[in-house]
Design brief:
disordered C terminus, 12 helices, 20% strand, alpha+beta
Length: 294
C-alpha cells in the first residue's frame, strides 16, 4: 500500500558515498500531521539545513533566531536553527527534510537572508521529495543514501525555480495575523481573550477575527483555546500538578470552566486524561513564559 501524506513517518536513509555525502546528504525526511495548537520540538545542528513545508494548513516555526508563519503550500529553509518548535495554527500536515553538505549552501546562498530562505510555492517540491523517500522505504528498505541525495538535489533545483520576487510577498504577508499568532503563542496564559488581543493590535475584534479566519481557517479565540489545552496536557503529564493549578497556569478562569472546555476539546475530563496519559520524565516549570519551547 502506498504511504499516505497524513500519517506520521520518519525516514532515515543510509549514509551516502563519502564523495556524494560531502556534497549533499539528506539525513532525514519526516511527515508530521499536527492538529491545531499542537507542536513539535527538536534540536538542529549548526551545520544542518532544515526545510519545513506546510503541505496543508498553517504553521509557525520558532527558535531563538527565527519566527516564521507558513501558509499551506509554502516552505522555508533554515540554517543552524538550534532548538526550534513547529506549531500548527490550523489542522496541518508539515513535511521536514534535513540536509547538509557543500552543495546545499551553494544552491541556497543567494536566497538566504539572516539564516532563512522563503519559497512561497515550495511545499510541492518538499512534499515530492519526502513522498518519494516514503515509497523507497516501503519497497526497498532501508533507503539508499545515494538515492536520497539525488532526491535532495532534485528538490533544491525545483525550489530554486521559485520566482525570487515572490519571497518579499511571503516575508511581509499578513502582519496583523502574524503578530496575533506571536502574541498568543508567547502570552496565552495571561491573555484576557479577544478583547485584549484586538486592543493591543489596535484593531476591532471583528476585523481581527475576519483577517485571522481568512488567513488560517480558524478563529483567534479557537486558536487560543487549542494552545491552552495543549499546554494543559503537558502540565497534566507532569503528574504532580493539581487540576486547579493546571487550569490557572493554562489561562483558564477556574477549574470548572477548564474541565468543561477540556472535555469539549478532548472528549475526556482532565482526571481521565491524567490517568491515561504517559507521565513526563521532567517537571514543567510553572513560570515558563514560552511554554512551547523548552
Amino acid at each position: 500500500m502506498p504511504p499516505r501524506q497524513n500519517e506520521m513517518r520518519e525516514i532515515k536513509p543510509t549514509t551516502p558515498d563519502t564523495v556524494i555525502g560531502n556534497l549533499l546528504t539528506l539525513s532525514s525526511g519526516r511527515i508530521l500531521p499536527l492538529p491545531a495548537g499542537h507542536s513539535f520540538t527538536e534540536q538542529m545542528e549548526e551545520t544542518d539545513y532544515t526545510l519545513v513545508a506546510a503541505t496543508q494548513g498553517n504553521l509557525t516555526v520558532t527558535s531563538h533566531q527565527q519566527y516564521t508563519l507558513l501558509d499551506g503550500g509554502q516552505a522555508a529553509a533554515f540554517q543552524g536553527l538550534g532548538e526550534y518548535t513547529i506549531q500548527s495554527v490550523s489542522d496541518s500536515v508539515c513535511m521536514l527534510v534535513r540536509l547538509r553538505g557543500e552543495l546545499v549552501e551553494q544552491m541556497l546562498q543567494d536566497r538566504l537572508h539572516e539564516g532563512a530562505a522563503f519559497f512561497p510555492r515550495g511545499a510541492a517540491a518538499v512534499r515530492e521529495a519526502v513522498m518519494a523517500l516514503s515509497v523507497l522505504e516501503e519497497e526497498y528498505p532501508p533507503v539508499s543514501g545515494d538515492l536520497a541525495s539525488s532526491q535532495a538535489y532534485t528538490m533544491l533545483t525545483a525550489l530554486r525555480g521559485t520566482p525570487a520576487e515572490l519571497e518579499e510577498e511571503q516575508i511581509y504577508a499578513s502582519p496583523l495575523v502574524e503578530s496575533a499568532i506571536a502574541i498568543i503563542q508567547e502570552e496565552f496564559p495571561f491573555l484576557e481573550g479577544l478583547d485584549e488581543l484586538s486592543e493591543r493590535l489596535e484593531v476591532s475584534k471583528a476585523h481581527l477575527s475576519r483577517s485571522f479566519v481568512k488567513k488560517t481557517g480558524v478563529s483567534p479565540g479557537k486558536y487560543i483555546t487549542h494552545v491552552r489545552i495543549e499546554y494543559a496536557k503537558l502540565l497534566l503529564r507532569d503528574g504532580d500538578a493539581s487540576i486547579a493549578y493546571v487550569a490557572e497556569a493554562s489561562g483558564f478562569a477556574n477549574a470548572n470552566y477548564f474541565a468543561k472546555v477540556f472535555r469539549r476539546e478532548t472528549g475526556m475530563s482532565p482526571t481521565e486524561y491524567l490517568e491515561s496519559a504517559p507521565k513526563r520524565r521532567r517537571p514543567v516549570r510553572g513560570d515558563q513564559r514560552r511554554p512551547v519551547i523548552w
